Amino acid sequence: MTTYKICLLPGDGIGPEIIAEGVKVLDAIGQRFDIEFEYTEELIGGIAIDETGCALPEATLKTAKDSDAVLLAAVGGYKWDTTDPTKPRPEQGLLGIRKELGLYTNLRPVQIFDALSGASTLKPEIIDGVDLMIVRELTGGLYFGARERFYDEAGAGMNGAIGQRAYDTLEYREYEIERIARQAFEAARKRRGRVHSVDKANVLETSRLWREIVHRVHDADYPDIELEDILVDNCAMQLINRPADFDVLVTENMFGDILSDEAAQISGSLGMLASASLGDGTALYEPSHGSAPDIAGQGIANPLAQILSVEMMLRYSFDMQDAADSIRSAIIRVLDEGWRTGDIADASTPKDRIVGTERMGNLIVANL
Ligand code: NAD
After folding, report:
1. Best mutation site among 17, 97, 270, 275 for ligand 1, i.e. most ligand atoms within 8 A of its Cβ?
2. C-alpha closest to that of 95 among 143, 166, 43
3. For residue 148, what are the contacts with CB-CB under 8 A and spacing of at least 6?
4. Cα 325 vs. chain centroid, distance in angstroms?
């Protein structure tokens, strides 16, 4: 029997509640496909700060590196919110693990489940047929450049002659753009063969380099893929104007962060979107949403994004396409039968079809 080692990182807020449902689904898949999943749970984020003083303890990193895949829920919460740069923050756990595992690609698919098409704030004719994938560069760009905050005369504000100044830098190396471009073109080959490369080449030098390299990779190795450049501000508009026209979008770290949250809203629920972070070693799978501290501990969080991240794990880390398809079918069936968690219910949902986190997980397992 094949055994896969999975590092579980529940994190904060609703994290422990939703990851339990992801594990339930993995166990059910294991039984059906004769695979053993061996779990090791570790700390990350706020809970790791409380217990060890650091958002990404060494032990967590070691287990993650020794595992075949990492399943993460979410990190963060009011308790650890701070603007003091000297205090540890939960997101350092996330940024740190991405960097340490070399996870330079983030895949965020956005698809519309027919049963939920009414949940979107966009008109049905606009979202009809939406099936896109954002390929976000994850270990470079603005989130990883040099940054500083300091006092000087030029920064003088209302408090006197000396004031604070801060800067962040956006930097890309050729190889970083080349490898993310390849990931995007490879993804497009398995999809509808179309890539939009998103940049701000009319202003930023990094974007001009980005554009040049993306085209070089395309012309050399992927001439069969349709490639179009699009400025990030225009892309933000077109995503809500004609989202069904997009197949694969590839972009810089911060642009990708913002655009993928915008794209998430096309589907109407953040609770339905998963993501995969891939590199050269262990990959990491997580929901696109955060730790939802406003509903933590109530047993009402939607576990489907976490379960969809399990689906992505089976697809990308273990090449178990049938198992991944069976999870997707189970989710479609449960939604078609009318079952909803609160976040995806609407006025037409009968009260007895609104279920909590655990019940939703059980329904998926029963339908596998
Ligand atoms: P959030 O995604 O946690 O929540 C936004 C809204 O969506 C909330 O009303 C929440 O209740 C709801 N929501 C999110 N996931 C849900 C689910 N599965 N089921 C039902 N409702 C759900 O974003 P936020 O409020 O901006 O951030 C809360 C915390 O999460 C912050 O500390 C933030 O830093 C952190 N965060 C973490 C990640 C991550 O771990 N990858 C991502 C984004 C935000």
Report:
1. 270
2. 143
3. 166, 167
4. 20
Question: What is the rounded CA–CA span in Å between residue 290 and residue 78?
Answer: 12
- C-alpha angle 336-128-255 in degrees, rounded to nearest 5: 110
Say how many Å lie between the CA of residue 220 and the centre of ligand 1.
41
> What are the DSSP E strand ranges found in the chain?
2-11, 35-41, 69-74, 105-111, 131-137, 147-152, 163-168, 194-199, 226-231, 248-251, 274-278, 283-287
Angle at which helix 304-316 crosses helix 15-33, to 10 degrees, equals 40
- How far apart, in Å, are the Cα atoms of 59 and each of 6, 30, 42, 64, 147? 14, 26, 7, 9, 28
- 10-residue block means of pLDDT along the chain (368 residues)? 96 98 98 96 98 97 98 96 87 93 95 85 90 95 93 74 90 97 93 97 98 98 98 97 97 95 84 91 94 97 97 94 95 96 91 97 97
308 within ligand 1 shell (Cβ under 6 A) = no
Residue 62: which H helix or E strand, with range?
helix 58-66
Which residue has the least CA distance to atom 36 on ligand 1? 290
How many angstroms separate the CA atoms of 85 and 148, rounded? 10
Q: Is residue 193 left, alpha or beta, with left meaning phi > 0 and alpha meaning psi from -120 to 50?
A: left
Structure tokens at 240: 């809500």
Q: How much is the pTM?
A: 0.89
Residue 65: both structure tokens together: 């590196």
Q: For 21-36, how does the pLDDT look when each residue is reduced to its tens digit (9 = 90+)?
A: 999 999 999 999 999 9
CA of 301, closest atom in ligand 1: 19
Q: Phi, psi at residue 15, to the nearest 5°? A: -45, -55
Written as one letter, the residue type at 75 is: V
CA dihedral sign of residues 265, 74, 108, 356 = negative
Distance of CA 64 to the CA centre of its chain: 18
